[in-house]
Amino acid sequence: MADPSSYRPRPGEIPVDPGVYRFRDKEGRVIYVGKAKSLRSRLSSYFQDVGALHPRTRRMVTTGASVEWTVVKTEVEALQLEYSWIKEFDPRFNVRYRDDKSYPYLAVTMGEEFPRAQVMRGAKRKGTRYFGPYGHAWAIRETLDLLLKVFPVRTCSSGVFKRAAQVGRPCLLGYIDKCSAPCVGRVTPEEHREIAEEFCEFMAGSTTRFVRRVEREMQAASSALEFERAAVLRDNLGAMTKALEKSAVVLGDATDADVFAVSDDELEAAVQVFHVRGGRIRGQRGWVVERESEDVASLPLLMERLLQQVYGGESSEGVPREVLVPVLPEDAEAVEQWLSELRGARVEVRVPQRGDKRQLMETVRRNADQALARHKVTRAGDLTARSQALQELQDALELDEAPLRIECYDVSHVQGTNVVASMVVFEDGLPRKGEYRRFIVRGDEAAGPAVDDTAAMREVLLRRFRRHLAQAEAQGETATEEAPTATAGAPADLPDTPAGIDPETGRPRRFAYAPQLVVVDGGLPQVNAAQRVLDELGIDDVALVGLAKRLEEVWIPHQDFPVILPRSSEGLYLLQRLRDEAHRFAITFHRQRRSKAMTTSALDGIPGLGEARKKALLRTFGSVKRLRGATVEELQEVQGIGPALAEVVHARLAGEQAEPGVNLTTGEVLS
After folding, report:
1. Model pTM?
2. Measuring CA to CA, which residue among 574, 96, 517 is closest to residue 380?
3. Is pLDDT at 518 greater than 70 in this prediction?
4. pLDDT in tens, 353-369
5. Per-residue CA distances from 93 to 60, 170, 427, 468 (Å)
6. How many angstroms separate the CA atoms of 97 and 293, rounded?
7. Which end of the chain, N or C, is less surrounded by CB atoms within 10 Å?
8. Do the beta carbons of residue 428 and residue 63 sit within 8 Å?
9. Where does the record place a coiled coil (predicted)?
10. What is the distance between the alpha carbons of residues 409 and 533, in angstroms, rounded to a whole number?
11. pLDDT for 589-632, tens place per residue?
12. Better-predicted residue by pLDDT, 557 or 202
């Protein structure tokens, strides 16, 4: 752990302007991103007496090795830059919202010639209207199933739409009157767009007008003795009523608002939000966040970070007119201005004091209370369990510090063919999937072809740690030559590049960060082989263990007896998760390689011979065996094969043995 005073910048160097700052560790990774109205006062607060800091803040400043900052003009710019950096670097000490999955929306693609209603997730697209979010995709499909009787808008994919147009026959929905069938010309593009626009108006909250119109038409049809039409209109009215019952009115005046509530304790906080559109609840979302982070040490700061996450990636249609919160965010004015710019109209962030909105917030808070209680009984997300697991590993393996970064390796193959390996990374007891790596094992020249697990593991570890040592050495030479007097507390625009960061892209290098603990899948032979690799490279600051599957024994290099962790141990549970994740990642890659190998042939890899030309050759000659017997002149007769390419193909096939494969045209096994 570093002493914060070793990289503390001089107060006179830090500007008093608003800006965004980043703490980096000794490897150059960004570990925390924050913003401030005054950079000088905020950064000075981190370098006071370490004992007076919040526990997680103390851990952050002692993990850090440098701090840098960027000055901006306004607090709104600081808010935007902070959000983009948190998304880019994913700092470990910034708040992590769990269960922030992509929620489904009911989307209508008004930008197409024939608008389509569908379930859609992810980034918002231009020209598409969104309604939601909904808690589940099936809720959207239920709503669509009811309303398609009234608004028969297209819901099929582009492929189904084109096929129906080609054959001149609509799909099943067209026959049962749940689609107006614009594919076969039952309605014109203008008429179909009008149906889609009415559907959007109904979903946006203008429901009364459509209900009254259907009632008038039903009564008129009944008076004119058109009972069949009246029955259809009656069914339509029932469908609209049933759809409206699924989202009861909670706020009047067609209110568009998002209502947030928080339930918290000393360790964690649960956040719930109800999305109200047109006065009706359209969806619900929830997160659980650890309270140990400085980001959520206070509720105002928690709300600010939450609003950044919820609305940072939204389009203008995703931001409502009102955002109701239990407490105002820390920089309420800046947040309001930022949301207003996103929406293109004024957005009000406020705390409801009385009336229906206050009652609705109490309902949301009760949901947050229940969500926090449910979360407490789960094991994987429990901060105490993760901390206990790391502490148990430190004690059992006699490490100097808790292994905050653990890497696990596994090898996968079938009888020595298609040998691959995986590297998975856990940081703070949680998977860091962006750091996962896959290896194609080609064999070590000194040891011969790597057909067994031990030789394959040796090659993988050599490649991984040689790359790390080479990058560390290159970075050290660069730092010595270019910036011999660089200070740790330098602003962001100084020319020196932190260790582990690519100076060209500004992103972390691959394999730049060494782990505190390496786990291999296997017993004492595998562990000793892996230890020989580390000894050969002169690496003595990385601990190494192996986890044997039969009795779940933890093996340490050069020890005759394993370490036995209790079956109820959180440390053993963490090692098992690492081992299982590495096995899953390796076997998935192996299956991909094996599947690809089953469809290769002697034609693969010939320069200038793409998929279209390979298929043309196989259609003409039928198999690779006949291709080998063909002359250059016969090859030239195939469309797309010129004299030069024919010479290359003939020479390559004549000089190589036949490789097993599959004819991509006929599916037969090639000889």
Report:
1. 0.47
2. 574
3. yes
4. 888 888 888 888 888 88
5. 7, 55, 11, 24
6. 11
7. N
8. no
9. none
10. 14
11. 878 877 766 666 677 667 778 778 888 888 888 877 788 888 88
12. 557
For the chain, the first-to-last Cα distance in angstroms comes to 62
Instruction: Give me the amino acid identity at 585.
Output: F
Distance CA 500, CA 513 (A): 7
8 Å CB contact between 58 and 3: no
Written as one letter, the residue type at 246 is: K
DSSP-assigned beta bridge partners for residue 408: 424, 519
Angle between helices 524-537 and 453-482 (to 10 degrees): 30
* Alpha-carbon span 419 to 409, nearest angstrom: 13
Q: Both tokens of residue 571?
A: 């440390």
Helix, strand or coil for residue 218?
Answer: helix
In terms of Cβ atoms closer than 10 Å to its own Cβ (0-12, 13-18, 19+), residue 658 is middle
How many Å apart are CA 86 and CA 24, to the nearest integer? 13
Q: Parallel, antiparallel, or unpaired: how do β-strands 19-25 and 117-120 relate?
A: unpaired
Q: Are 288 and 264 in contact (CB under 8 A)?
A: no
CA distance 615 to 634: 16
Quote the distance between the C-alpha of residue 524 and its chain's center. 37
d(Cα 343, Cα 430) in Å, to the nearest integer?
Answer: 35
Handedness of CA 122, 123, 124, 126 (dihedral sign): negative
The answer for 621, left when phi > 0, alpha when psi is -120 to 50, beta otherwise, is alpha
For residue 55, what are the CA distances in angstroms to 39, 267, 412, 430, 463?
22, 12, 42, 20, 38
Which pLDDT score is estimated for 378?
59
* Domains by residue range for the chain, with CATH: 19-89 (3.40.1440.10), 105-246 (no CATH), 257-369 (3.30.420), 385-472+511-587 (3.30.420.340), 604-670 (1.10.150.20)
Pairing of strands 348-350, 322-324: parallel
Cα 333 to Cα 337, 350, 427: the distances in Å are 6, 11, 36
Q: Give the pair of three-digit tokens for residue 266.
A: 């000393």
DSSP state letter for 123: S
Structure tokens at 537: 């490279």
Spatial CA neighbour of 144 closest among 136, 153, 135: 153
Question: 383-397 and 570-597 are packed helices; what angle lies between their axes, rounded to 10 degrees?
Answer: 90
Query: Count of H helices and E strands in the chain?
Result: 20, 20
pLDDT at residue 491 above 50? Answer: no
Residue 439 neighbours by CB under 8 Å, 6+ apart: 420, 421, 422, 423, 459, 460, 463
DSSP state of 384: H
CA distance 476 to 472: 6
Q: By three-state DSSP, how is residue 163 classified?
A: helix
CA distances, 645 to each of 136, 371, 549, 670 (Å): 55, 66, 53, 22
